Amino acid sequence: MNPAPALTVLVLGGRGFIGRYAVRALRAAGHRVIIGSRFDAAETTAQLEQRRCRLQHLQRHEDWGPLLSGVDVVINCVGILRQRWGERYEAVHSAAPAALAQACAQLGLRMLHVSALGLHADAGSAFIRSKLAGERALLSSDADLTIVRPSLLDGRDGFGARWLRMLARMPVYLLPNSSNGRLACLRVEDLGEALARLATLPATELAALAPERVLEFGGPEQFVLRDYLHRLRGGERRSQVLGIPHWICRAFSHACDLLHLTPYSFGHLELLARDNCPQSNHLGAVLGREPTRIEAWNYVRKPVLKDAALPANVVNRNYVELSSDGFWSETRREEQGIASPMAATSNDVSGQKTLK
What we know:
By secondary structure, the chain is α/β, with parallel strands linked by helices. Among the domains are: 8-154 and 184-219 and 277-287, Rossmann fold (3-Layer(aba) Sandwich); 300-340, no CATH class. The protein has helices spanning 17-28, 89-107, 126-139, 159-168, 188-200, 203-209, 225-233, 246-259, 266-272, 283-287; strands at residues 8-12, 32-37, 49-52, 73-76, 110-114, 144-150, 153-154, 172-176, 186-187, 214-217, 240-244, 320-322, 328-330. Strand 5 (110-114), helix 3 (126-139) and strand 6 (144-150) form a beta-alpha-beta unit. Residues 299-356 have low confidence and may be disordered.
């Protein structure tokens, strides 16, 4: 793949799980990045350009005009697991992306839309149906767009990924009897890098790669849920698996959805019952290398020390470290003398070029 000129990329949901890694990869490649977020700019993103947006308020193509000013490419990483007050599935997953695609078509901008594998029309989950409706609306537009469908994502700072890693350490796995679908789990870093590459790929190469305007991504291996948890656990000792009847899991998923508890949802229960693997895995072709293999995540618990007992070069053992991309990431130590990455020069590029 040929290197592309520096571009201005608007990453919607750029402070979320997937968006953070897309932002990191784009900035590492020297592109100017604008974060679109429903939150006000945080202190940790002071060096990053941000435009506030709430997709439920962007239901018409003309609503997107100010947000798209000076932008070459838009990456939509926005999604909601559960409906909230003022945020409905149809508005966020379907109407707003369709309006965005129309605006991009009028302005001649490229659009990348992150969806998911395993969507089906007969799903009982409104989450799944709304994501599928969004895909269909986008594919009916004339925009220069590509839909990216990843399988299950692994990463240290993802809401669902953290729960799976926690579950992997348990001596007994309580899993739905219906969770027999295969998963082509992939690292979120690979997805972020792939999105950055797709954003800047010449139009002819992208058209050849995705003639149907859809790309499916997965890791190099496939698992059922219990085997995936064993991989995350690591070591030779495997946890016991206790199957739970589907009706109990369904009732529990509805309770979690109603009370907004844990990342487990009715949509996940349905997705786990089906294969969640790409029919044709394009991730390696986009990355230009083999996708990263999922490795065990071994959590080493360190002894709790009082402040007086801490080594001189450690100021706090329970802190959040400002990572090099300007976002907060979890860690367990902070050493004095580490320069704040926010002091570094921004990678923003003043010149803007369009795709050819």
